[in-house]
Amino acid sequence: MEAVLSKISTFVREKQLIRPKDRVLAGVSGGPDSVCLLFVLLKLKEELDFELTAVHVNHGLRGEEAWRDQEFVEKLCREQGVPLKCVFCRVRERAERDKMTLEEAGRICRYEIFREEAVKSGCNRIAVGHHGDDQAETMLFHLFRGTGLKGLAGMEPERDGLIRPLLCVERQDIIAWLREERISWCTDSTNQEEAYTRNRIRHTILTCAREQINEGAVRHMIRTAEELSEIEHYLAEETGKAYDKYVRRDAQGCFIPEDAFGHLPALLGSRLIRSCIAQTDGGLKNVDRRHIEMVRGLFEKQTGSSFCLPGGRRAVRAYGGVYLYSAESEPAGSTEKCFRPEIPGSCMAGEKNWVFSLEKTEKNQIIPQKTYTKWFDYDKIENYPVIRRRRPGDYLEINREHGRKKLKDYLIDQKIPLRERDELFLLADESHIIWIPGMRISERYKVTEDTGQILKVQIYGGEEDGRESPNNDSGGRG
Questions:
Q1: Fold of 247-329
Q2: Which end of the chain is more exposed for a tag (fewer CB within 10 A), N or C?
Q3: 351-396 pLDDT, tens per residue?
């Protein structure tokens, strides 16, 4: 069985899991996998010149059996001259507190302790005993629950300093090697309990696959996982290039231009959407293929269409593309900013100074057409005018017959990008928009021959932007 050790050694070197002068922390539970890992690392230590230390986590779940395993690991490491740290954790309390299964809570606690002890001991590598059967089990577990290419690729040989040197060999080979070397181990009784999903896959499905379909089933799945991992890495690189080239990031979220998106292959487009969602607060938690397809569908929708994503996030069809943002960093329009100016007087809104004054109407008065200075019929303003962002239900009158148009529809018709819509400061009379600076005023508030008092509003800091035309934004008489 020297072939087992040779196979692992080759795997470690090819994947560069351990380099000379590394400091490796090995998780040793006392089971056959972790015991094999410890002895393999001791063998490799002679060739690769790295430091080795170990950690044992007592989950406090199996009573005397758990303490037996800890004593076994202590004796083993002492005999092999490997420094060991034993840590006790209360997994059951963690599971109850965070409302999760014992299996999940145990895994989280275990890796938290591994990371903490690695930092304390100055280790840059954490080695765990996952083997080929674990890989096949993980692939099936992800497949049955619903997954993409990344899930089917299973566990990585190395990720963020966590290494899996035994991923290239099957469990039956590990057991055979330990027996040949006359190395003893402990048996965890919970590994036989069918209550755990992974145990059912391990003992029922994989056993059936080996015995009734192909004895090399697990070996073939290991190879498939390696190929899928290579494909996943390649696609991740291509997705990263597309993200850097096309996606526009700002403080609120991500904007995907429709022109660029339309030229991407469907697979890469979906991955780009997934990557953008991952950049918002909440990451990919509870995000599945259905949400990706919904975002894809937005590119075919009318501007302004939107829907919610998991975690309070939103996807919105904006002018020229799709915008994704998180609840904690919604566009500026979602955060209420309302200013009540003194009349006469001035008020700062954003970086612009709004100046208000009152004038009496003169006979045959001509109202100039200026973009950032407007004159309104003050008597027609029913409530105290305020400067604010847009709100649901806002509208304006667009003709002398008092025809109304929703503010949202007006801005869409004008092809104003979503982010610009959300950043607009408006002059409002409750839900009736008096003035959209740079665009138009509501027909209702225009000065007429019957106007008694005029409200003059000037904005300092505004720039001519070409959106106004004398036909739709005159401050003249109605």
A1: 3.30.465
A2: N
A3: 677 889 998 877 666 566 676 889 999 999 988 898 988 988 899 9
Bridge partner residues of 440 (DSSP): 436
Domain ranges in the chain are 2-223, 247-329, 335-460
Q: Which residue has the tokens 């056993």?
A: 207
| 438 Rama sector, left if φ>0, alpha if ψ -120 to 50, beta otherwise | left
Nearest alpha carbon to residue 218 among 173, 158, 180, 278: 173
How far apart are the C-alpha atoms of 101 and 96, rounded to whole Å? 8
Nearest to 256 by CA among 264, 248, 265, 267: 248
Instruction: Find out whether 384 and 453 touch, Cβ atoms under 8 Å.
Output: no
Let me know: does 467 contact 414? Beta carbons within 8 Å: yes
Model pLDDT for residues 250-261, shown as the tens digit of each residue: 766 788 999 999
Q: Which two tokens stand for residue 201?
A: 């896959």
pLDDT digits (tens, 9 = 90+) for 280-334: 877 777 788 888 998 999 898 877 777 788 877 888 887 788 888 875 544 444 3
